[in-house]
Amino acid sequence: MSIHVTVWNEFEHEKVDEKVRAIYPDGIHAVIAGYLNGLDGIEAGTATLDQAEHGLTQKTLDSTDVLVWWGHRAHDKVWDDIVERAHERVLDGMGLVALHASLLSKIFRRLMGTRCSLRWRMAGELERLWVIEPHHPIVEGIGEYIELPETEMYGERFDVPDPDKVIFISWFEGGEVFRSGITYTRGNGKIFYFRPGHETLPIYHNEQVLKVIGNACRWAAFGGSREIECFHGGKNIKEPLSPLG
């Protein structure tokens, strides 16, 4: 059975910035979805901010096993009721893969319960993402590290709750470090935050970065919520059954 992925992108930089459009002429979402659709067992669609209901209708989310989220300049434009809809789906069992500046998105902050603040610097410097959980399925086929010759720096302190697992720690030329790949569970949903991806750099054309995203989609997929019958308040109700693994 295929994993159904929806790649969401605010799709604003590509429309107003020639440098971004040159790298991602059809949008960051199109590049990521195109890669995912080339993998066995994954079917990926896209959604963007300017679509009706931001492309995240209840029907779309109900059929989504994993939501990949990319946002940067338009976090505040996302409707709160859409955030609530996505939040409920994560609790039900939909996976979430949050990329780069999506750490400041409404959905990620809602799931973390913190500001998710950090240090940052756009210096175009070398980043090495060290794999510190080499047996985790998210880093299958990656090796000891990913090296990106030119990136935006994100540095600690990263204001998030203690992760279930830290998969990557980044080192930058300026000496900063950052927890660049972290996992959480919220309700029945698995969450992976992955740092690389500044819009003015061709990071989503990097095969290792794309491979991590593909691996993360497979890891986070739950296939929708499963339910058990339980007794509460004098009546039978259905409750989600916690996922395994």
Polypeptide structure, described:
This protein is α/β, with parallel strands linked by helices and 245 residues long. The chain has a single domain (3-114, 180-240), classed as Class I glutamine amidotransferase (GATase) domain (Rossmann fold), CATH 3.40.50.880. Helices cover 24% and strands 34% of the residues. The chain contains seven helices and eleven strands. The chain has helices at 13-16, 18-23, 28-37, 58-62, 80-92, 106-112, 207-220; strands at 3-9, 42-48, 66-70, 95-99, 119-131, 145-155, 165-172, 177-186, 189-194, 227-232, 235-240. Strands 2-1-3-4-9-8-7-5-6 form a nine-stranded mixed beta sheet. A hairpin with a 2-residue loop joins strand 10 (227-232) and strand 11 (235-240). The longest helix has 14 residues, at 207-220. The chain is globular, with a radius of gyration of 18 Å. The two termini are 18 Å apart. The relative contact order is 0.17.
